[in-house]
Amino acid sequence: INIILTKDNNSYRSFYNALLHEGYRDLAALLQDGIPAISSGNGKTSMDGMTSYVKTILCEGGVPQRPVVFVTRPKLVDAIKQKLCCLGNDPGWVTVYGMAGCGKTVLTAEALRDHRLLEDYFPGGVHWISVGKQDKAGLLIKLQNLCSRLEHDSTLSQRPPLNIEEAKDRLRLLMLRKYPR
Description:
Pfam families: NB-ARC
Mean pLDDT: 80
CATH architecture of the largest domain: 3-Layer(aba) Sandwich
Number of domains: 2
CATH class of the largest domain: Alpha Beta
Distance between the termini: 44 Å
InterPro entries: DEATH-like_dom_sf (IPR011029), NB-ARC (IPR002182), P-loop_NTPase (IPR027417)
Order of helices and strands: HHHHHHHHH
GO cellular component, one term: cytosol
Shape: elongated
Protein name: APAF factor
GO molecular function: ADP binding
Number of helices: 9
Radius of gyration: 20 Å
Low-confidence stretches: 38-43
């Protein structure tokens, strides 16, 4: 408890939620009165500080939601945001790496929960795919799904790519022509 008290209000909330989620309702009840209030400045933000615009963009793009047990790591999230902003109008990549389970997905998804970042640097939205280790059939399904999501508003209804090479070519063209940023 002493460590949690040295952290921000989100840590306390996360600890409380973890107790509830893991079946320690009696302990959570003891802490319930101390849960910090969350202010919603302009009425446009929700309990977790996200605007409806951000929620819509992330939901449409398939970005993972915050886990029930969530601990903020603002320095790492800010570092990812800075790297994304450095891309500007130039095509490029930001790679987040680390051992399995260290929080790469959570950190990256958290960096995207920024209204200004999405509006300024991702005007076409975000399309999140989790690949992991896949056999060729599984990879083809992921690529077909991504092609379908990226072509959703296209006037030409195209059939899904039939093989990985065709999918790679179609994604390359989509990225260059329709989603250059």
